[in-house]
Design a protein that fits this description.
This protein is mostly helical. Helices cover 67% and strands 0% of the residues. The chain has 10 helices and no strands. The longest helix has 28 residues. The radius of gyration is 21 Å and the shape is globular.
């Protein structure tokens, strides 16, 4: 699939923003947050701002963005519609939770819990948009949902840890979420890539044409004299050697290096620990964008079988 920059930005920014918002809600529900207004403003502007940037960027790849509102009506059958409904709904409990924190200096825990649940639900709905697409083997599998959740958790927990370290009352338990999340993300992405490389292909030229009983199927002539929309959007190709290099960049920059930096920040003195956390956030951003690009670039739609590909 063609890696659209708008969707890459959406899944990266919004995923981290929703998880940071969820952790703000969970820690508040557990009574582990000091409702300092200044740090609260930073936290909500940061998390809700990244969510908004991501949501707005997701409309850039639409041919008619002004019609996006129509997607909300199909929530009974469409994961895209459910994602939109959940994405907007999350702003309601998050707004009430923020009002109590910022203006009354009270942490309304149950609103924090509802904020966390709706935020995680939104990420899950986003993942299911891709996991429900049967023509794309790279997405229609059991790795997609946990992969999306841990990617968001890795980014959002790092952001939350940096914020918690700068807060008037630091919360050291934030480090636990970040380090565990980064480790889980590394394991799940390694498992996902292994699945892509080793599992049998769901569709081949033989199965698509129904001629497999006769023998090997190959294309005699191209269906078009020049590249068309389907080939550009559904038949994006990336060389295996380049994919391997990008996987290593995503794994090291996105998960391993940030985990090491977070561990060092945990034992280093003040100021220095913040610098290491900032480096961890920047490194994770590079790895996350690389992984998101690969997630789309390595996906193949079955329609490409009719344009000469042997398998999808």
């Amino acid at each position: 699939m063609h890696p659209a920059l708008s969707v890459i930005l959406f899944t990266s920014a919004s995923g981290g923003g929703y998880v940071m918002l969820a952790l703000l809600g969970l820690f508040g529900w557990g009574g582990a947050i000091d409702p300092d207004p200044i740090s609260g403003w930073i936290a909500f502007i940061w998390s809700l701002g990244m969510i908004s940037v991501g949501l707005l960027s997701s409309t850039l790849h639409l041919g008619h963005p002004e019609r996006a509102w129509r997607a909300f009506s199909q929530w009974r059958t469409s994961w895209l519609s459910r994602e939109g409904v959940l994405a907007l709904f999350t702003f309601l409990p998050a707004g009430i939770y923020a009002i109590g924190w910022l203006f009354w200096r009270e942490v309304w825990g149950w609103w924090g819990l509802l904020t966390a649940l709706s935020a995680i639900g939104t990420i899950g709905a986003t993942a299911m948009i891709y996991a429900s697409l049967k023509p794309i083997r790279a997405w229609n599998n059991l790795w997609t949902l946990p992969g999306y959740l841990v990617m968001g958790l890795a980014t959002g927990s790092l952001w939350f840890t940096l914020w918690a370290e700068l807060a008037p009352v630091p919360e050291p338990r934030a480090y636990d979420f970040a380090i565990v999340a980064l480790g889980l993300a590394a394991l799940i992405k390694r498992g996902y890539w292994r699945f892509l490389d080793s599992s049998p292909h769901a569709s081949t030229a033989e199965s698509a044409t129904g001629l497999g009983r006769i023998g090997k199927v190959r294309m005699l002539t191209a269906p078009h004299t020049e590249e068309n929309y389907l080939q550009k959007e559904m038949g994006f190709r990336i060389a295996r050697k380049h994919a391997e290099k990008l996987r290593h960049i995503a794994l090291i920059a996105g998960f391993l290096a940030p985990a090491v930096l977070a561990l060092l920040a945990l034992v280093l003195p003040d100021i220095i620990d913040v610098i290491f956390l900032i480096l961890a956030v920047l490194s994770n951003a590079i790895g996350t964008l690389t992984e998101r690009w690969l997630f789309f670039a390595e996906a193949k739609h079955t329609v490409i079988l009719y344009y000469g590909e042997a398998k999808a």
